[in-house]
Amino acid sequence: MTAAASAWWILFFPLAAFLLIPLIPEKKRTLGGWLACAGMFCAFALTVKIAWPIFEGQPFHSFHASIEWILIPNLQLEFGVLIDSLSVLMLLVVTGVGSAIFYYSLEYMAQDEGYRRYFAGLSLFAFSMIGIVISANLLQLFIFWELVGLSSYLLIGHWYQKNEAADAGKKAFLTNRVGDFGFLIGILLLWTFSGAEAARSLNFLNLNVTIPAFAQASASHGIWITLAMLLVFSGVLGKSAQFPLHVWLPDAMEGPTPVSALIHAATMVAAGVYLLARTFPLFSLSPAALEIVAYLGGFTAIFAATQAIVQNDIKRILAYSTLSQLGYMVMAIGLGSAAIGMYHLTTHAFFKALLFLGAGSVIHATHEQDIWNMGGLAKKMPVTSVTFFIASFALVGFWPASGFFSKDEILSLAFLENKFLFWVAAFTVFLTALYMSRLIVVAFLGTSKIRKKLHEPTQKMLLPLAALAVLSLIGGFLGIQNILSPASHSSHETPVFVVALATAFGILGVLAAWFFYRSSRKIQNRFQTAFAPIREILVRKYYMDDLYDLLLRYIQQPFAQFLSWFERKVIVEGLVNHTAAFAAFSGFCLRKLQTGRIQTYLSVFFFGVVILVYCFTIANLHP
Amino acid sequence: MTSSFWILLAPETGLIALILLVLGLDLFTKLDQAKLILFSILGLFLLFGTLVFVWPLRGNALNGLFQVHALATFLKFIFLGAGLLTLVITKEFTKNLGNRASNFILLILLSVLGAFFLASTNDLISLFITIEWMTLSLYILTAFLRTDAYSLEAGTKYLVMGAFSSAVFLYGISFIYGTAGSIRFEAIREVASSAHQSPLFLFGFLLILSGIGFKIAAFPFQLWAPDVYQGAPTPVTAFLSVASKTAGFTALVKVLFAVIGPDALNWSAVIAVISGATLLYGNLGALAQTNMKRLFAYSSIGHAGYLLMGIAAGTSFGLQGTLFYLAAYAISNLTAFLVIVIANEHLGSGEIIAYRGLAKKSPFLAGSFFIALLSLGGIPPLVGFFGKFLVLQAAVWKGYLWLALLGAANVIVSLYYYLSVIKEMYFKPPVQNAEQIQLGILPQFSLGFLVASMVGLGIFQAPLFYFAHAAAQTLF
Fold it and tell me: A607, B220: Cβ pair inside 8 Å?
């Protein structure tokens, strides 16, 4: 099998699983789960096969294959695969972490009523996500981009009987709509910039040539490129939940925990970062756009981290942490290094998926999500706890865990490029350490508040935990950073100052949490009263939800009402009804002609010939 | 490349052999009528192999009378597919045919054979003979239900109108022969492209155009269609609306592009006007219909308008669009008729109201009808959409913006009546008892295949697009 054929098969396996699962009868439902797993494992195996040269330390030869798809003249679109080191890395993350989470779900969802629906949804997601990664052109990417949005919606609302879950699904879908609307306009702008009318293409390889040519053609084109790239970035804002479109991600935690791990931590939300890396050659044409990307990423990092400190739901803490880490990645790309952003994406996928799966393991055992109701889990669930600690260690960025390496790359990049963002990012390390230590101290240490006896899950859930724990721990030594830019590591050494500062901030955060949350209730209360106003702001999420509520109520709602009025009165009553009346009237007239008598028919035929001759003579008299 | 006679005529030879075999089996054995139909279906299915085999070949046979090229093979694919599916439809209709089903299928096979020769003709007389050959079978088939007054009325009307149009057609040929001195396409084309033709040449051309206008039911020669379509046995209606219409367009394309040539005689504007009028007549007339077959008669007139639009452009691209549209229309319309024949058998009525709640009685049948109607209406991503897109684009490029706008407006009109059928099927409760309709293996498989083609060719148009492209290039 050629490499291109393998790439098509990677896309096909999850699709086949998605199509087959609904056909499985409810009695044999476990077969559905295994089918989904099989699809994902096959995709993973093929990805490893494609990526094999990388494991052997050889340079990766990218390739591109496509079939013609839409053949409208002047709008030739292809449906293709583009496999380069970037997409291989992302494919490894998606199928690798995906395989672990699919396998984990077998037990986690075993008792669920919607078991087959869940696995069908998961397979649809895997298909769409792989589609994004291997897409060879921007429009194809957009189609799969919408498909992951759909599968995310379906999976967030998996327990649709619960109002919160149904609302969260809607919120995620609608928020993404806002971003994707801009994204689509951005794509269309890029399309118009990509050369002469007949030769336009949205293929990434072509765009990397045509758009720079467009930029150089005239000095005034720069502003257009900036506009187009910012519109593309608005898609990233939605999908990767960056400020101000971040509001959907914390609510998305209403979905099953493996879904949160796969979609809302490791892969889908990282699709925005992947898109930035994929279109980086275009972004780099516009320094202004990159600067905005960097600042928004940095802002999201610290903005989300502050909110994580006051959350009580274990999954919501992790969700805000995801927002914050995605902010890091976006910032890294904004500062000019797609490779570093992707590096952090990869390590983050390992440890954040692990954190969510650990949280899932806890929730599975305790049926409890509020950390204040847990406590002392470390003694009762040692394996889960150890893996959770490893992941937290990596998240904060302590040596030798994987997060240390990728985060220090980002920090040193910021140190060289933008001192302000460097201090923002460094302070975020302190916040990260603070909220993670708070979570661990309150939920895993101390005395248990749970009466019943807790059990570790079986190997189906522990095996993925162990695998991800190993990756989180040693991810920094695997040479992931060399896949994208073999030269980047040697070009600038990480300043010792940066490493020392980050580690110091991390330790400071841990110590602060340790002393504060281990202290007596009285001190805690006094502290909380002193900072009550700030706490209120944080708990209310900086009033972002209230702001959106106001916007909807006073701007969107009246506008929608106006449109509704316009449609009912002007379009339906005015245009449609009159058109219908006209059509019905003409139909009535025509029927007069249709007498059913053959005499009429023959006469009309004859007149037809006469009219034809007459018309034709006129047409030929005036050449 | 020249190939020998038998290789070039492989599909026709195969079909003749099949006809003789079916005739022999019918006369000399006591084979069940249903089995005979299955045998014929199998035979036609195998004939696809010969068409695939002939596809790359180019050549002449019978002293230049019979031509094999991409266009001919493309059209033969449509004729064969239409014949095959008409037999599948007939299979569901056998009950009404009594012990004469074998005659019925023999006539259909003969009609397909006529159409095969029509696709390969290279002179006016054989064009006339083959198209009459095809239509003669259809006269009999239309009046086949001897006890049904509608069928007899339809047969009579069709015969009288058909005879009149054939006379006009033949009269036109005589003028052409008289002025050009030949009936061969190439010879006439030389005369047509010269600066000064005799007015009689033009007159002859117009008479031929009128005769063909009858076959494709174009305005103002379309009045027969609703009566005949409604009265004819349903399989015959299906065959008329697809194979007979394709035959008419085959003749039209040959006359306009091979005999006259795209640049001579300024025919383009006249065809554009006819196209617009046909569109309006078919779609507006369909709005008020209550009988399903009559609705489809009007809608097929509307589709002839779109098919003419591509031809009116007079370009290779326009012809390609028309050919693509023909194939898309054939697939979608035959799907619809397969559903109609099954539904009529179970519902006992051909009125649209009888389709109420069909979705409850058979989700598969209603679903297939749904897809077919949307494809006919031109909804993406189904194959019908792309056909409409190509002909509209061709009209715009030719400068007929008004025609393209008219076509776009008619899409909306056609959606109105297609969607009313869908509304009856899905949103109204069943009139009588809601018992399930059981489908046989053959219709199930056929419907599944047809729906898959409508969706598949709609999403990936490349195969059909290039097929039609190669066929259209033949005449340029």
Answer: yes
Q: Closest chain A residue to B220 measured between Cα atoms?
A: A608
What pTM does this model have?
Answer: 0.80
Q: Which of A233, A235, A209, A230 is nearest to A146 (CA)?
A: A235
How far apart are the C-alpha atoms of A210 and A99, rounded to whole Å? Answer: 38
Asked whether residue A487 carries a pLDDT value surpassing 70, the answer given is: no
Residue of A nearest to B265 (CA): A620
Residues of A in contact with B265 (CB under 8 A): 616, 620
Residue position matching structure tokens 């986690």 = A108
Q: Which residues of A touch B213 (CB under 8 A)?
A: 608, 612
pLDDT tens figures, B178-207: 988 888 888 888 888 876 777 888 888 899
Q: Which residue of A has its CA nearest to B317?
A: A73
Q: Cα torsion for A71, A72, A73, A77, to the nearest 10°?
A: -50
Which chain B positions have a beta carbon within 8 Å of A598's beta carbon?
156-157, 160-161
- pLDDT tens readout for residues A459-485: 888 888 888 888 888 887 877 777 776
Nearest-10 Cα torsion for A507, A513, A515, A518: -140
In one-letter notation, the amino acid at residue A434 is L
What distance in Å separates the CA atoms of residue A190 and residue A207, rounded to the nearest whole number?
8
Burial of A531: CB neighbours in 10 Å, binned 0-12, 13-18, 19+: exposed
Closest CA to A298 of A204, A400, A414, A382: A414
Q: With cut-offs at 50, 70 and 90, classify the pLDDT of residue A621.
A: low
Tell me if A217 sits within 8 A of A211, measured CB to CB.
no
C-beta separation of A384 from A362 below 8 A: yes
Which neighbouring-strand residues pair with A83?
A: A63
Interchain contact, B165 vs A587, CB within 8 Å:
no
Residues of A at the B interface, defined by Cβ within 8 angstroms? 67-73, 79, 580, 583-584, 586-588, 590-591, 593-594, 596, 598, 600-602, 604-605, 607-609, 611-613, 615-617, 619-620, 623
Average pLDDT taken over every residue of chain B: 90
Q: For chains A and B, what is the number of CB pairs under 8 angstroms?
A: 98
Distance from CA of B126 to the nearest CA of A (A): 23
Contact B142, B160 (CB under 8 A): no
Chosen for mutation from A140, A594, A606, A621 (greatest number of chain B CBs closer than 10 Å) is: A594
Q: ipTM beyond 0.90?
A: no
Q: Which token pair is B190?
A: 């030389």
The domain ranges of chain B are 266-476
A69 CB neighbours in chain B (<8 A) are 459-460, 462
B87-123: pLDDT as tens digits: 999 998 888 888 888 899 999 999 999 999 999 998 8
Nearest chain B CA: its distance from A595 CA (Å):
9
CB B254 within 8 A of CB B127: yes
Q: What is the pLDDT of residue B95?
A: 86
Q: What is the pLDDT of residue A404?
A: 86
Burial of B431 (0-12, 13-18, 19+ CB in 10 A): middle
Task: Read off the pLDDT of residues B36-68 as tens digits, 9 standing for 90 and up.
Answer: 999 999 999 999 999 998 888 888 887 888 889
Residues facing residue A70 across a β-bridge:
A77
| Listed residue (A322, A344, A275, A325) closest to A129, CA to CA | A275
Q: Check pLDDT > 90 for residue B299.
A: yes
d(CA A43, CA A13): 6
Query: Per-residue confidence at A527, pLDDT binned at 50, 70, 90?
Result: confident
Contacts of A608 in chain B (CB under 8 A): 210, 213, 219-221
Cα of A611 to nearest chain B Cα, Å: 9
By Cβ distance, the residue of B227, B389, B459 closest to A72 is B389
Q: How many Å apart are CA B125 and CA B251, to the nearest integer?
A: 12
